[in-house]
Amino acid sequence: MKINETGRINAINPYQRNAESQRQEQMKKSTRKDEVSISTEAMKLLQAQNSGKVDAERTLKIEELKQQVSAGTYQVDASKLAEKLAPYFKQSSEN
After folding, report:
1. pLDDT for 2-49, tens place per residue?
2. How far is CA 12 from CA 1, 7, 46, in A?
């Protein structure tokens, strides 16, 4: 009677191979690097922000609006307001 059959020793190898493949996958994951990409629109916004042009124009427009509201001369354009709100009402009626 044989206690150590040669076929049984080979049965251990699949487990060893599985453990080895897991170690290799972990090594691949640890060597992989993250990437970041910035869209062209974001690049344009960054360039505009760095130039200061957007901030100056926005600040000027906000000041004008504040003056109009405080003086009571600010007029809401109803057609523009309706155009901006229409997509929201269309979405809610479709659901």
Report:
1. 566 655 555 566 677 777 888 888 777 766 677 888 899 999 888 877
2. 21, 10, 59
> Which distant-in-sequence residues (6+ apart) come within 8 Å of 54 by Cβ?
45, 48
Whole-model pTM over 0.90: no
C-alpha distances in angstroms, 62 versus 20, 36, 47, 58, 75? Answer: 64, 34, 21, 6, 15
Spatial distance between the Cα atoms of 87 and 76, rounded to a whole number of angstroms: 19
Alpha carbon 5 to chain centroid, angstroms: 58
User: Burial, 93: exposed, middle or buried (Cβ in 10 Å; 0-12, 13-18, 19+)?
Assistant: exposed
8 A C-beta contact, residue 74 and residue 65:
yes
